[in-house]
Give the backbone structure.
Amino acid sequence: MQQLCRLLVGLFFVLAIGPLAWAQESRRAVLFINVQIFDGKSEELITGHDVLVEGNRIRKVAPRIRVNRPVTVVDGQGKVLMPGLIDAHTHLMAVKSFDEAIYRYEPTYIAAVATETARRTLMRGFTTVRDAGGPVMGLKRAIDEGVVPGPRIFPCNAFISQTGGHGDFNPSMTYLSRHFAGRLDKAYLFGWTITADGVGEVRKAAREVLRSGASQLKVMGSGSVTGAHDPLDVVEYSPEELRAIVQEAANWGTYVMVHAYSDAAVRAAIEAGVRSIEHGLMASPETFKLMKEKGVWLSTQCLNYTRDVDEFGVKMPPNVVAKFREAKRSADRAYRLAKRIGVKVAWGTDLLGSLDVHNAQSLEFIARREYFSDIEILRQVTSLNGQLLALCGRRSPYPEGQLGVIAEGAYADVLIVDGNPLEDVTILANPSRNIRLIMKDGLIYKNTLPRRGAPQRRVRSPASNVPPR
Ligand SMILES: [Zn+2]
């Protein structure tokens, strides 16, 4: 009878709080043994240490960790354990070019494809991204709630752009802005862009974007390669407007990142107090020196400018081709200068387009090798990007733990890889083969480690930590 009662009580719990019970099961502690550790910073692998994950944090990194309660043991087979990767410049919602995504396709189609883009991003080993513009908040919410798999997202949400600037995608060449015609642009309605002119408007735009949950602001500060209207060399926004946006961000406890190519635009952004320059390819040596002096980040992307026009998998209009070639001519010089001067360089990709285009993300590891050493690239994509993302302070969506490092108290975003990335970082360019285990927030999303070696102590199966699909 007593047994029957227990069974019925047990059944009640399974039926009534099944999902909760499941979540607790999936949050079971994980002990990584038999691994060599790249901690995100050191050029030497740490050997002879285990890593204990409890909940969504790394609790302990030490030799021979003993745990006297149920734990899932993962035998790393002597492979390298490292932090999850961070991409500091993505556009997860840009599954088409910006203007197509805004004006041609249904928002539900864009969201559906973006959901798959996010899943694949995570499965390439990217456990965190800084999303540099686009209406990503709903996708972020669904990922954070565990509804769909994807990386952590530091969202910028809507771009802030002047009329005719890089964020003004309106294809109409007649004067139809809401200011004069009273008509709302789809780019504003769907949360892609706020076009704002003058100090008063940019302050309001900044406040709207911050209200939407952005962890930092993205401002369009110069002409662009893919913009609908602006030549590459133009400066966008006045110093007063830029300063006003920076001040609004600072009042909210965060910072501004600026899209800027031309030297004048990069310099104006730095002088206005911007913390992260996106692209920055045409900056002069003096401007790079100023960047270094003020501790401003160069958030740039090598893959985009080591490729040729026909290697993108999309057909570029003639005016875009011309602008692309102009930017490409500056890229090589800019990367070498930035390295020589010692500017802090972030790791990012800025890919816009189909799933296939986004699939090229990991090739950035190959492109960067032309300019940076393997350890430099590894630090960029882990601990340095982690530092950059932390500039948003308490506005971070994930404020409790560090990102991009294997350290006690850091978030449990962990990879196990085949080969030693310190000797050959390009192993990360083939994630489906070489990334054997992906853990994000303490949950294992992929594990293709062979099930042999050390006995799996007190464990049902390593798969018991796998999150819901
Ligand atoms: Zn971008």
